Amino acid sequence: MRRMPSLKSLQAFEAAARCGSFTAAANELHVTASAISHQIRFLEREIGLSLFHRDTRTILLTDAGERYFQRVSEAFATMEAATREIERHGKADILTVHSVPSFAAQWLMPRLSRFSAQHSDIDVRLHASADPVELGAGLVDVDIRYGSVLPARGVITVQLPDEAVIALCSPAFLRRADPPIHTPADLQHHTLIHSEVNLLRWGDWARLNGDIPLQLDRGPRFDRSFMSISAAVDGQGICLESHVLVERELATGRLVELFGETRSQVACHSISILKAKQNVPKIKLFQQWILDELSRCSVDRVVGQMNLIHE
C-alpha cells in the first residue's frame, strides 16, 4: 500500500508554495484561504515537518518545504503532461503490427491509408523486420510472417491465401533480350535475379517446368524480395516473385509477366495473434481487412491490370 498524503492537501501546498500566498492559492483552487491553511496544517501533521515560516505576513518555505515543493511540483507537472497527452491521443486505439519487410514495403504500406480511412479511431504502428517477435510480451498485436511458423502456446496463426509465383522482367529488358524470350527454356540464356529466402526459387521453378538447364550459379542475389523486385524494375534481369508483392509494378507497367502458364501457387504468408486477444475489436478489424484486401488481389486481376496498360 502506498504511503501518501491526501491529494487535496498536496494540491493546496503546491499552489500556496508556487503562488507565495494562501489567498492566491485559494483563488486558484476556488476555496477559502482558511481552507488552504487547514489543508497545509493537516499535511504538516501527517509528515511531521513544518513546511512554511508563518511569522510574517507573507509565507516562506522552510528548507524542508523547499525540497518537498520541488518534488511535489515535478509530480504535478508530470500528471498535467500525462493528462494533456491522453486528451490529444487517448481517443484512438493503437494497433501495433509487425511484418516481414517485403510484405510490409510492397503490399501493406501502400494500403494502410485505406485501413485508416475505414477506421479513423485506430492508429497503426508498423514495424518491419525478418526477426520473429514474442507476442506474449505484449509489445505487438499482430505478426505477419513468411514461410512456416512454429506453433506457440496461446498463439493463433491463420494462413493467408496462396500466392502465385511468377517470372517477371521490365519491358525494356524484354525488348532488348537476345535471344528473344518466348518460352521458359529461353531463360537459360538470360540473367536471373535470385531471392535467396523465397520458398520457391529458380531451381524449383526449373524442375516444375521440365528441368530447364538454367544458369543457377549466375546473376545478382538478394535476401529480400523487395530488393529483387527493384533490381528487375531497373532492368538487371528476370525475377521470380509473388504476384502479391509485384502488384504495383505490374499495374504501372514497370514489370511484365513472362509466362502465365508457369505460375505456381504457394502458401507464403500468415498472420499470428494471441488467442487471448482474438476478440479485441481493433485486432479483429485489421485481420478481416487484410483478408478482404487479399481477396481482391488475385493473380488474374493483377495481371489483368497490366494487360489493360498495354492494350
Describe the overall structure.
The protein is of the alpha/beta class. Helix content is 42%, strand content 17%. The protein is built from twelve helices and 13 strands. The strands form four sheets. A five-stranded mixed beta sheet has the order 4-3-5-13-6. Strands 7, 10, 11 and 12 form a four-stranded antiparallel beta sheet that branches. Helix 1 packs across helix 2 (22-29), helix 1 crosses helix 3 and helix 1 (7-19) packs across helix 4.
Query: What would you call the quaternary organization?
Result: single chain
What do we call the CATH topology of the largest domain? D-Maltodextrin-Binding Protein, domain 2
Query: What percentage of residues falls in helices of 4 or more residues?
Result: 40-55%
Query: What do the pLDDT scores average to?
Result: 90
Biggest beta-sheet profile: 5 strands, mixed
Shape: rod-shaped
- Structural domain count: 3
Cα Rg = 32 Å
Give the class-level CATH name of the largest domain: Alpha Beta
What order do the helices and strands come in, and which of them pair?
Blueprint lengths: L6 H13 L2 H8 L3 H15 L4 E2 L6 E2 L1 H27 L3 E7 L1 H8 L3 H7 L3 E7 L13 E5 L8 E5 L3 E7 L1 H6 L17 E2 L6 H7 L12 E2 L2 H9 L5 E4 L4 H5 L4 E2 L6 E3 L2 E6 L6 H15 L3 H12 L1
Parallel strand pairs: 3-4, 3-5, 8-9
Antiparallel strand pairs: 1-2, 5-13, 6-13, 7-10, 7-11, 7-12
Helix pairs in contact: 1-2, 1-3, 1-4, 2-3
Which key features would you list for this structure?
single chain, 311 residues, alpha/beta, Arc Repressor Mutant, subunit A, D-Maltodextrin-Binding Protein, domain 2, 3 domains, five-stranded mixed beta sheet, four-stranded antiparallel beta sheet, 12 helices, 42% helix, rod-shaped
